[in-house]
UniProtKB/TrEMBL annotation, chains A, B, C, D:
GO terms for molecular function: fatty acyl-CoA hydrolase activity. It comes from Bowdeniella nasicola. It comes from the Bacteria. InterPro entries: 4-hydroxybenzoyl-CoA_TE, HotDog_dom_sf. This is Acyl-CoA thioester hydrolase. SUPFAM superfamilies: Thioesterase/thiol ester dehydrase-isomerase.
Amino acid sequence: MAAIDVPIKVRWADLDAYGHVNNAAMLTLLEEVRIAVFWHGAGLDNTDGGFGVDGESATFIARQEIEYLKPVLYPQEPIPVRTWVSRMGGASVDIDYVIDAADGTPAVQARTVVVLMDTASMKPRRLTEAEREQLGRISDEPLTFRRS
Amino acid sequence: MAAIDVPIKVRWADLDAYGHVNNAAMLTLLEEVRIAVFWHGAGLDNTDGGFGVDGESATFIARQEIEYLKPVLYPQEPIPVRTWVSRMGGASVDIDYVIDAADGTPAVQARTVVVLMDTASMKPRRLTEAEREQLGRISDEPLTFRRS
Amino acid sequence: MAAIDVPIKVRWADLDAYGHVNNAAMLTLLEEVRIAVFWHGAGLDNTDGGFGVDGESATFIARQEIEYLKPVLYPQEPIPVRTWVSRMGGASVDIDYVIDAADGTPAVQARTVVVLMDTASMKPRRLTEAEREQLGRISDEPLTFRRS
Amino acid sequence: MAAIDVPIKVRWADLDAYGHVNNAAMLTLLEEVRIAVFWHGAGLDNTDGGFGVDGESATFIARQEIEYLKPVLYPQEPIPVRTWVSRMGGASVDIDYVIDAADGTPAVQARTVVVLMDTASMKPRRLTEAEREQLGRISDEPLTFRRS
């Protein structure tokens, strides 16, 4: 019942002409975080055949919200992205993320609303009980945006 | 006193493995819209020396919010991005955008909070009266997000 | 029987932390050039049902070669990419490109070897006579690389 | 005196609409390989103050050559990029790379010509003896391109 740290490698090509990670590239980093969680089960426990996005399910990004509080520079090592589930709806999940600056205060805060889709019908489908139980392992309170 | 259409070329590389414009790439398209407005004066009237981001000013993206309502496919021609100023603060501006789907209903709705910075001090600076007058030419009511 | 100029918009996100168009982003610009030629018939004459990549054909990039002679900065307007067919093989075509610097000398020279594929079999297929005639309209001598 | 394997994470956003790593994205992967070697000393021995690109030196990409022999799909784990120095000139170095397909045969072969620049003068500068010694540790025979 807690956020997890997902390590993501920033690339030099993510930097813009100011030498900071570009605002759009930041969403690509968060995409890699979601892949780690939903496809590869980071922080979850897939051994019981629960949550996982396979050929029968897909995810659709319905909404994103991101605050840029401080510039993120190029780090040599992968950066830890603090990641958790902040809401579970019938067919959707909110994922919250925080990337810290070097001084330990947040540089970026973000939220993605992910809708689970049935790939056959391409319609939203409900979360199963097994999925709720698995996502519960990385659930926590929603973050507070500064300017929402 | 109205929104403008800024034509932006989608690239094939913006598509993801589903054949849709990727969620992060969408923010790159909106970045090009802002460049057209702030740097090149699309919809503004720069002849009186008013608004414009030159060597003395820079813009910092403080926040973005984006809703993906329908997939955007690869179009041959540049797509019109409906763009307007939905709020002017002391040192910041909200830019709202809508990209329509082929059927004329919104496929994407977004908002960027842009903070004006003084490049010498790298601190926020107030909008001038000339800038407010210019941005007023492309001002309109804030859009309504579906899920905020 | 001559090269054509294909206008391509550089994006701010194509710049790297040095403020130059990134070396990999340059290949994305050339990809857009090929799409203009092969999919949309830039410089060709598609009215007789000749060359064109539709659902029955696809292109596979077999090889690329690119020389960076001068940095390419961010231009407001689309840049003309001089483009021509420098070789026609049985099932493949060489496309040559030059992007000029502001002083009119080449900043970038490149070549892509494109193989035509049959989408049903996903095997290379031979160029038709109609395609050879069409590509002949934008054919010219191969460029000379400085360091090959 | 041998090639090294540099592990590079492919991102989902590197895939194109065919589900393969995009041809231009491949050069971004190779950029990350060079950063690992030149900036962070992968395979080299920087303890004696030898090779390294710091504030006094920069690298300029003069030329790239890349062959795409098989599609590269999305792998969960970082892929090993076999990397070595195949030529040392007065002020430039050739870096060769091979990425293998799942069957162990090459999917991609590439070469980058890197020129060392003095950042003060922005002119090419000669490799030092210490740098030659260090780069010698990852030197090997040039690869053979299939179509050069």
